[in-house]
Amino acid sequence: MHLALEILVCLLQCVWLWLVAILKAVVPASLQPHKDVSGWVVLVTGSGSGLGRLMSLRFAALGCRLVLWDVNESWNQETEKLVQAASSGAKVKAYTVDLSDREQVYAVADKVKQEVGDVDILINNAGIVTGTMFLETPDSMNIKTMDINCNAHFWTVKSFLPAMLKKNRGHVVSIASAAGLFGVSGLSDYCASKFAAVGFDESLRAELVKKGKTGVKTTVVCPFYINTGMFEGAQTRFPAVLKFLDPPYVVDKIVEAVLTDQAMLCIPKSVYMFYFLRGILPISVNQTIGKLVGVSETMDNFVGRSKSQ
Ligand SMILES: *[C@@H]1O[C@H](CO)[C@@H](O)[C@H](O)[C@H]1NC(C)=O
Ligand SMILES: *[C@@H]1O[C@H](CO)[C@@H](O)[C@H](O)[C@H]1NC(C)=O
Fold first, then answer.
1. Fewer CB atoms inside 10 A, N or C side of the chain?
2. Across 48-57, 81-90, 194-203, least confident range
3. Superfamily grouping for domain 36-297
């Protein structure tokens, strides 16, 4: 009797939440309730370039205080200047940190807590890619890729989540990739690290729910290739279905997702469709479709950022 009641309540909840989710999917994000983040402290890793720089500018415009983390001091200082120039009076502080060094991450995190205070929105954005076939990829790059794209998320979350839990307010954002949902030839260690980041976000969300910390949210972002230079030379066969994304558009979507507490963001929308298909199709069928779409060929002419500059 007790269980029957529990099942009934669960069913009703599911129907209700499904309706809410459908509503959220069809109502334009601009019309949905947004959380007010002005005065919040936002930490962005990899803020020296690409998405990281653009997100920093966007959150500063929303009245946030910015903490910029990048390994490249000069680029990071450039972002700091740009933020100050774009939002006069914006509070922003740049820190040089090598995310592949755990001790350094903890040390700089302590410095941030002393000098700026608690972080409200943590954006784990920094990432690297080697882009070679697995057997041609040196061990050092396998390790670095896992360290920066995944392990660094552990150290930053351990540093900044406790204060969020205490206040029951905060947001952890993981910039993963569509390569965190699909394996791609030429991206084996990158995919491993991004799958890991996706799994970490999902588990973290489960822990937050279990703890009843409804004010602390997570968002995982899974975009297809973005025109930031990181994936210079990569290609897509059907740009109508899987198009290269423009950084400002991606940043629009990410900020929107954070402000509306969206748990998962895939862009373009076709990524959701492929994700659904891989869940229901036999692997052989999925592979055959993947062959047509040319997923395994996307990295054939990759040059990347290091080699293109
Ligand atoms: C930062 O990036 C620039 C441009 O690629 C490079 O010239 C410089 O050496 C980098 N600095 C560090 C500390 O990596
Ligand atoms: C399904 O196909 C996609 C596209 O080719 C591929 O990236 C993914 O790894 C495939 N999934 C499985 C389980 O083989």
1. N
2. 81-90
3. NAD(P)-binding Rossmann-like Domain (3.40.50.720)
